[in-house]
Amino acid sequence: MPLCGTTIITKKQAEFAQREQEILNAALSLFEGPHWEQVTVEQISKKAEIGKGTVYKHFASKEEIYAYITLDFTERLFESFEKVIHHEEVLDNLKHVIRVAFEDFLNNPAQARVSFYCKREDYRNRLTSELREKFETMDRRVEDFFGAILQPGIDKGLFIDKPIEHLVMGLEATFDGAISMIWNSDISYQHASDQENFVDIISEYMLAGLVGLGKS
Amino acid sequence: MPLCGTTIITKKQAEFAQREQEILNAALSLFEGPHWEQVTVEQISKKAEIGKGTVYKHFASKEEIYAYITLDFTERLFESFEKVIHHEEVLDNLKHVIRVAFEDFLNNPAQARVSFYCKREDYRNRLTSELREKFETMDRRVEDFFGAILQPGIDKGLFIDKPIEHLVMGLEATFDGAISMIWNSDISYQHASDQENFVDIISEYMLAGLVGLGKS
Amino acid sequence: MPLCGTTIITKKQAEFAQREQEILNAALSLFEGPHWEQVTVEQISKKAEIGKGTVYKHFASKEEIYAYITLDFTERLFESFEKVIHHEEVLDNLKHVIRVAFEDFLNNPAQARVSFYCKREDYRNRLTSELREKFETMDRRVEDFFGAILQPGIDKGLFIDKPIEHLVMGLEATFDGAISMIWNSDISYQHASDQENFVDIISEYMLAGLVGLGKS
Amino acid sequence: MPLCGTTIITKKQAEFAQREQEILNAALSLFEGPHWEQVTVEQISKKAEIGKGTVYKHFASKEEIYAYITLDFTERLFESFEKVIHHEEVLDNLKHVIRVAFEDFLNNPAQARVSFYCKREDYRNRLTSELREKFETMDRRVEDFFGAILQPGIDKGLFIDKPIEHLVMGLEATFDGAISMIWNSDISYQHASDQENFVDIISEYMLAGLVGLGKS
DNA sequence: CATGAATGAGTCTTCATTCAT
DNA sequence: TATGAATGAAGACTCATTCAT
Fold first, then answer.
1. How far is CA D132 from the centre of its chain?
2. d(C-alpha D41, C-alpha A108), whole Å
C-alpha cells in the first residue's frame, strides 16, 4: 500500500473534481433532446444542483463544456474499440468497430450530437489553443487507429492500395451521414425499416464500399 | 386589357410575386458563409431593399424562408438530375446523378446548408401542415426518382434485390456525410487530397458500396 | 411658407427622432446621482417608458449614450460661451466664459460627469471611428475657441507669449480639478465656504495664474 | 524568551502583519494600468500568493483595500513633503512641495489613482466609521500642513490674506486637474509638450495664481 | 488562521415577431 | 400593402462576498 509518492488530494479537491463530472452529466441529460443547443448554462447548473457561477469555475465557457463532452466520449469510444479488435481478421475487426461505433453513437445521442457540433471548423477556432491541441491529438489518434486496422487489409490485397485517409473518408462520410439520418428521423425511410435494419444495411454498405473500391 | 380567361395579374401583384424571389435571393446571398444561422431577418430585408415587415407578408416566419429555399433547391436539383439520366446504362445514370448532386451542393452551399437544416425532425414539426405536406411530397418524389433509376439495376441483377429504400439509404448517408465533411473542412483529410479528389473517391465509394452489397 | 425643398419627415420619423431625446433625458435624470455609472440600460428604458430593445435602436451601446450626452452638452456649452464673448476686453471675455462654464457644469452635473468620463482615452478607443471623429472635431473646436479669446491677450502683452495650448492647460486643469472637488464634496473645505465662494476664488485664481505666468 | 513588557508577537502574528503589506503591494502592482477598477479580488490574492478568503481576513471589503492604499500613500506623501520644507523661503517651500507632489503622483500612478477614487463622497459614505475617521484625520493633516507653509506667506504679504482653505483650494484644484489630464492623455495637448513641460507650466501656473490672487 | 469552492444577482446585448400608421 | 419602430424574453458571463473545512 503506497504511502507517499501519490498525489495528495484533499476531500475538498476530490469533491471538486467530482463536481466536474456532475456538471457534464447534468449537461448530457439536458442535451438528450434535439434542441440541445438551446440548453442554457443556467439550466445545466440547476440540473446539477449548483450555482451558475460554479459552472464557470470548471469550464471557461459553455463551449468548453461541449469540448470535454466530446473528448470524454471519444475516449470511451476508443475503449470500446480496443475491446473488439483483438481478432486477426481485418474484416472482422472492421465489422466490430463499425458495430460498436453505431452502438455508442446511438446509445449516447447527447455525446454524439455534441461531438458532431465540435467538428465544425469555426467551433474549433473559438477554442483555447490548449483545447484545440487536445482535439488535434484526438484526431490524430483516430487516424492512427484506423490506419492500424486497415493497413493489414491493404497488405493482403483486400482493399485497394491507397492512402489510409482515402479509405477512411468513405467510411466516415457514410457513418456520419447515417447517424444524421437516424437523428433526423428521416421521414422517407421510417416505414422502410426500423433503425436496426438500417444500421445493418449501412454497415454492410460501408464494408462493401471499401472492398469494392478500385475493383470496378 | 388582357383577354378574359387568362389569370389577371395587376402590375402590383406581379411586383409582389417578384418580391418573394428577391427576398429568397437576398437571404441566400447572406447564407453563403458558415454562420448562416446567425443571419437576421433585418439583414435579409435590408439586402432585399425592403422593410422588415414586408418579409413577413411573404413568409410567416424566418423558418418558412428556409423551407422555400429548400423546396426551390430541391426543384432545381431535380431539373439537373433529369438532364443527365437519359442514358440507358444504370451505372452511368447513377454516376451522373451523383456527380451532378455533388456539383449542385458544392456550388450552392447556401441552399444546401439550409436543406440540411430542414431535414431535422424538430424543424419539420414546427412547420405549418401545408408546408409539411410539401416537404413530404418532395421526399416522395426523391424516393420515386431513385426508384426509377435503381430498379433497372435490380432487374439486371446488378444490385441486390432489396427494397429500393434500402439501397438509397447508403447512398444518401454517404453523400450527406461527405458534404458535411467538406463543410467542416474536416481537418484529418485536408492534407490527403483536395476537395475534387475527395469527391471522386466518395463517388466511387458510393457505387462500389451499392454494387458490392450482398455480394460478400 | 416653404412647400418643397424641405426634407420631408413623416410623423413617425419625427416621433422617432423625439424618442432619442427622451432616452437621453431619461438617462440624464438617472445620472444625477453620484452612482451614475451604475445606472443600467434597463433603468433608462423604464424611465423613458420604452422597451429595453428600443434603446438599442437609437444607440449601439450604453457608451454611445454617454457620447451623445457629452456631444450635446458641449454644443450647449459653446452656445453659452458665444453669448458672452462679444465684449472687447480679453479679461472680460475670459471671466464670462469661466463663469458660464462653472454655471453650466454645476447646473448640469449629470452631463458634466459624463463629459468627464468621456475624456478617458480608453473610452475614446472603444468608440466607433465615426464617433471618435466627432469627439476630435469637438476637441479642436474647443482649442480654436480658446485660441480666439486668448490670442488678443497675448498680442496685448497681457499674457505671456507661449503657445495657446500652454495657456489653456492651466485653465483646464484648474477648472476640471475644481469641479471634481465640488462633486467630491471635498470634506476639508465644506466648512470653509459655500460652493459659490469657492467658485469665485477659483475663477479669480484661474485669471491670476494666467496673467501671472512668466511674470515672476 | 522575550523580555516582559515588550509586546509579545509570535512568529505567526508577525507573518500575519506582514501579509497585509503583501496584499497591498500585490494590489498596487495590479492597479498600475488605467483599468485598475476592474482588477478583481481573486487576481489580487493570486498575485499575493494567498487564498482569496485570506484577503478578507485583512480587509473587510475590496474598498477597504483602497482605503489603506490611500492612507499609506498620503503618509508617504507627507514624508516626502517634510523632507523639502526646511527652507525659509515660503515660495521655495511651495515650489518644492508642488514638485515633489507631481513626482509622487506620477511615479506612483496606482496609489494616486486610488487616492482620487477615495475622494468621492459616496465612497467615503460606504466606509466603516473607523476608516471614515482616519480619512478625516488625514484631511485635517493636509489642511494643517498647508496652513503651516502658507501662513508665513500671508504674514509677509506675499499672498492675499484670506483663509488658508481658500488659498489651498486653487492649488489643489489645479493639481488634481493636471494629474487627471495627464492620465487621460488629454488629446489636445499631446503635441504641445511632453509631460515634463506640462508639469512645469502647471507648477508655475499654480504659484502665479496664488501670488496673483487679490492683486488684480 | 487559511482556503477556495460556491453563490446568484446583475449586466449588456440580440432578435424574431408584432402592429399602428 | 409596406413599413420600421417597439418589444421583452433570453442568454452568456462576472465577481464581491460568504462559509465550511
1. 16
2. 41
Lowest mean pLDDT among A169-183, B126-140, B201-215, C99-113: B201-215
Measured between alpha carbons, how far is C176 from D192 in angstroms, rounded to an integer? 19
CA distance B50 to B46: 6
Beta strands in A59-154 (DSSP E): none
Closest CA to C71 of C39, C121, C29, C118: C118
- Assess A119–B contact: CB distance below 8 Å, yes or no: yes
Domain parsing of chain B, residue ranges: 1-59, 61-215
* Chain C closest-CA separation from residue D187 CA (Å): 8
Closest CA to B159 of B101, B86, B97, B94: B94
Q: Produce one character per residue of A99-135: b if its CB has 16 or more CB atoms within 10 Å, e if not.
A: ebbbebbeebbbbbbbbbbbbbeebbeebeeebeebb
Say if residue D199's pLDDT is above 80: yes
B88, B95 contact by CB (below 8 A): no
CA-nearest of A151, A209, A147 to A177 is: A209
**Rounded CA gap, C20 and D97, in Å?**
49
- pLDDT of res. D112: 95
Is residue B129 within 8 A of residue B77, CB to CB? The reply is no
Phi, psi of C213 (to 5 degrees): -55, 125
Q: Do A170 and B202 touch (CB under 8 A)?
A: yes
**Pick from C193, C124, C209, C115: which is nearest to C160 by CA?**
C209
Specify the CATH number of the domain B1-59. Answer: 1.10.10.60
Residues C107, C109: Cα–Cα separation, whole Å: 6
Partner C, chain D 26-45, Cβ-Cβ below 8 Å? 34-35
* pLDDT at residue D21 in the model: 92
**Ranges of residues in chain B whose predicted pLDDT is under 50:** 1-5, 187-189, 191-192
DSSP-assigned letter for residue A7:
P
> Residues 197-216, chain B: which have Cβ within 8 Å of A?
198, 201-202, 204-216
Q: Which positions ≥6 away from B195 have C-beta within 8 Å?
A: B106, B182
Smallest CA–C1' separation from B54, nucleotide:
F2
- Of C193 and A73, more confident: A73
Helix (H) or strand (E) run with residue A29 in it: helix A11-31
Please give the angle made by the CA atoms of B71, B74 and B77, to the nearest 5 degrees. 155
| C6 secondary structure, DSSP code | S
Grid cell 378574359 — which residue? B4
Is the Cβ–Cβ distance between A71 and B157 less than 8 Å? no
| Mean pLDDT over each residue of chain C, to the nearest integer | 84
Amino acid at C11: K
Compute the average pLDDT of residues A171-200: 73
Give all chains having 3 or more CB-to-CB distances under 8 Å with chain A. B
Distance CA D178, CA D170 (A): 12
C-alpha–C-alpha distance, residues B69 and B62, integer Å = 11
Residue B50 Cα, gap to closest chain A Cα (Å): 31
D65 exposed, middle or buried (CB, 10 Å; 0-12, 13-18, 19+)? buried
A196 CB burial (10 A radius; 0-12, 13-18, 19+): exposed
To the nearest whole number, what is the mean pLDDT of chain A? 85
* Burial classification of residue C169, based on how many CB atoms lie within 10 Å of its CB (0-12 exposed, 13-18 middle, 19 or more buried): buried
List Cβ neighbours of C115 (8 Å cut-off, separation of 6 or more).
Answer: C69, C70, C73, C74
Look up residue C198 and give its amino acid: F
- Say how many residues make up chain A: 216
Please give the CATH number for the structural domain made up of B61-215.
Answer: 1.10.357.10
A109: its cell numbers: 445521442
Give the phi and the psi of residue A101 in degrees, each rounded to 5. Answer: -60, -45
What pLDDT is attached to residue C11?
A: 77
